[in-house]
Design goal:
Strands 3-2-4-1-5-6 form a 6-stranded mixed sheet, with helices on both faces. The relative contact order is 0.22. The chain has a single domain, classed as Phosphoglycerate mutase-like (Rossmann fold, 3-Layer(aba) Sandwich), CATH 3.40.50. β5 and β6 form a beta hairpin. It is of the alpha/beta class and 241 residues long.
Length: 241
């Protein structure tokens, strides 16, 4: 009998909800691996920053975590850090990996490349307005309503084409926060309530009339990388891309 790689229990699969309606879609939401700009707390937005070595190791661990899943489709942001992460996952599955610009991080305009401290010093009023109101984008950045619109379009497309299937979305912290708010019918500013660390995995069941979140920010697959890398990222802003 051929040897089978032993995979820890937490890496095999999420427990599916019983008696799933025909309209349900199981979404596995993955944030990309770590980048140097994450460590430096720089807002990445749509700047095409690659994974660093730790990020590539995280992506490999995430791919191993998903190796036992029966995945029907993988969609990823076409920004390099998400696309690289998705390639690790797709390498263990036969379904196609498809780029989708609707999964790009929100654009932070002139803030991209700056740290939070730099932004708070250089643009204090704009930062306060952005945190407080969905109608106040960063200077030169993307309005939150526009992000919600492309997330809405993405969810509508998934509902139309992937009923009773498992779909992986590989994207960014801010984008996935907005996606969760949209799917769960929370106001956009509730996105600050969701923490999504790099290479984390969340599970969402999507229905015609709503959604159920069954797992958030799971990072158990990173435990083998060492405690310091599996702990929540206190040095990186989880919403900075």
């Amino acid at each position: 009998m051929k040897d089978v790689e032993r995979v820890p229990r937490y890496e095999r699969s999420f427990s599916a909800l019983p008696d799933r309606p025909n309209s349900s879609i199981r979404l596995l939401l993955a944030r990309h691996g770590l980048t140097d700009w994450n460590i430096e707390r720089r807002y990445q937005g749509q700047t095409d920053v690659p994974l660093n070595e730790t990020g590539r190791r995280q992506a490999h661990a995430l791919a191993r975590r998903l190796a036992g899943e029966e995945i029907d489709a993988i969609y990823a942001s076409d920004l390099r850090r998400a696309w690289e992460t998705a390639q690790y996952i797709a390498g263990r599955h036969t379904c196609p990996l498809q780029p989708d610009p609707r999964l790009r991080e929100m654009c932070f305009g002139v803030w991209e490349g700056l740290t939070y401290d730099e932004i708070s010093r250089m643009y204090p009023e704009a930062l306060a307005a952005w945190v407080a109101s969905p109608d106040s984008p960063p200077p030169g950045g993307e309005p939150l309503g526009q992000v919600v619109q492309r997330v809405d379009e993405m969810l509508a497309a998934l509902r139309k084409t992937h009923r009773r299937q498992t779909v992986v979305l590989v994207a960014h912290g801010g984008l996935l926060q907005v996606l969760l708010c949209t799917a769960l019918e929370f106001p956009p500013l509730a996105r600050w309530k969701f923490r999504l660390d790099t290479a984390s995995l969340s599970e969402l069941y999507l229905y015609d009339d709503g959604a159920i979140l069954t797992s958030l920010n799971d990072r158990h697959h990173l435990l083998d990388m060492g405690r310091s890398r599996a702990a929540p990222e206190r040095d990186a802003d989880p919403s900075a891309g």
